[in-house]
Specification:
This protein is an alpha/beta fold. It has a domain of 152 residues: Rossmann fold (3-Layer(aba) Sandwich). It has nine helices and seven strands, in the order E-H-E-H-H-H-E-H-E-H-E-E-H-H-E-H. It has a five-stranded parallel sheet, sandwiched between helices. Strands 5-6 form a two-stranded antiparallel ribbon. A hairpin with a 6-residue loop joins strand 5 and strand 6. The N and C termini lie close together (9 Å). It binds adenosine-5'-diphosphate (ADP) (2 copies) and zinc ion (ZN).
Length: 224
C-alpha cells in the first residue's frame, strides 16, 4: 500500500506538454488543499522579473528545450521549503529528466520524506499539438483555458480574476513540435523509472476534463 502518513500527500504529475497536467493539478490543489507547484510557472515568474537569470532561462524555454537540471532542481527545492508545503504538494512538470528524479529522490530521503504517487497523463501527440495551439492562459493567476474545450465564461477573460487571456510564447507550432520531441527523448523514460519504484498510476488524458478528474481523485483517495 501507499506510504502516505500523517496526512502528507506528495504527488507528481507527469505527461507531455498539453496533456492536462496544469488543468488537473490545479483542480487537485483546490480539492485537497495542497499547493500546485509548476516549475514552468516558477521559471516564467523569474523571466518576468526581468533579471539576467530570467533571461538565461528564457533562452532555453523559447526554443522548447529543457532548462538545465541544476537550475530547475535548486529553484524547486527552494520553493518546497515554503510553509505551505508541510502537508504536501503537487509537482506539475517536475521531474522532466531521470537526473531530476534522482536528485529529487535523494533530497526527499535526506529529509525523511517520500513520494505518495506519480500520476502520468497520456494523450496522443496529434491531440497535444491542437490543445497547445488553442491554449490560452491568465498571466496573473496562472489559470489555463482552451478556445474550444475549456472556454472562460466571458470570452478572452479569466474567470478567476478578469485578466485578459494570452497565448504563451512557446505555444507556437515549431516550438510545440520540439517540446513534444524533447518529452519523448528526455521525460518519457520517467514512466518506467517510477513504474519500477511502484509509484506509477496511468490516467487516460483523452477523456473530458471532469471525467479525468474523477479518476485522479479515485487514485489519490486510494493513497490515503
Ligand atoms: P507545459 O505545461 O506545456 O508542459 P511547462 O510550463 O511545464 O509547460 O514548461 C514550459 C517550459 O519550461 C518547458 O518547455 C521547459 O523549457 C521549461 N521547464 C519546465 N519545467 C522544467 C523542468 N522540470 N526541467 C527543465 N525544464 C523545464
Ligand atoms: P499541460 O499543463 O500538461 O501542458 P494544460 O493543463 O495546460 O496541459 O492543458 C493544455 C490545453 O488543453 C489547455 O488549453 C487546456 O484547457 C486543454 N485541456 C486540458 N485537459 C483537456 C481535456 N481533457 N480535453 C480537452 N482539452 C483539455
Ligand atoms: Zn486569472
Amino acid at each position: 500500500m501507499s506510504e502516505r502518513s500523517a496526512g502528507t500527500l506528495n504527488l507528481i504529475f507527469l505527461g507531455p506538454p498539453g496533456a492536462g497536467k496544469g488543468t488537473q493539478s490545479r483542480m487537485v490543489e483546490e480539492k485537497y488543499s495542497i499547493p500546485q507547484i509548476s516549475t514552468g510557472d516558477l521559471m516564467r515568474k523569474e523571466i518576468s522579473s526581468g533579471s539576467s537569470f530570467g533571461e538565461e532561462i528564457n533562452g532555453y524555454i523559447k526554443l522548447g528545450g529543457l532548462v538545465p537540471d541544476h537550475i530547475v532542481i535548486s529553484m524547486l527545492l527552494h520553493r518546497l521549503k515554503g510553509d505551505d508545503c508541510k502537508t504536501g504538494y503537487i509537482l506539475d512538470g517536475f521531474p522532466r529528466t531521470v537526473e531530476q528524479a534522482k536528485s529529487f529522490g535523494a533530497a526527499l530521503a535526506e529529509k525523511g520524506s517520500f513520494l505518495s504517487g506519480v500520476i502520468a497523463i497520456t494523450v496522443a501527440d496529434e491531440v497535444l499539438a491542437l490543445r497547445l495551439g488553442d491554449r490560452r492562459v491568465c498571466k496573473k493567476c496562472g489559470a489555463t483555458y482552451h478556445l474550444f474545450h475549456n472556454k472562460p465564461k466571458l470570452e478572452g477573460l479569466c474567470d478567476n480574476c478578469g485578466t485578459e487571456l494570452s497565448r504563451r510564447r512557446d505555444d507556437e507550432p515549431d516550438v510545440i513540435a520540439n517540446r513534444i520531441e524533447v518529452y519523448h527523448q528526455q521525460t518519457a523514460p520517467l514512466i518506467e523509472y517510477y513504474q519500477n519504484k511502484n509509484k506509477l498510476h496511468i490516467v487516460d488524458g483523452n477523456k473530458k476534463i471532469d471525467v479525468i478528474f474523477q479518476q485522479i481523485c479515485g487514485i489519490i483517495d486510494e493513497l490515503s
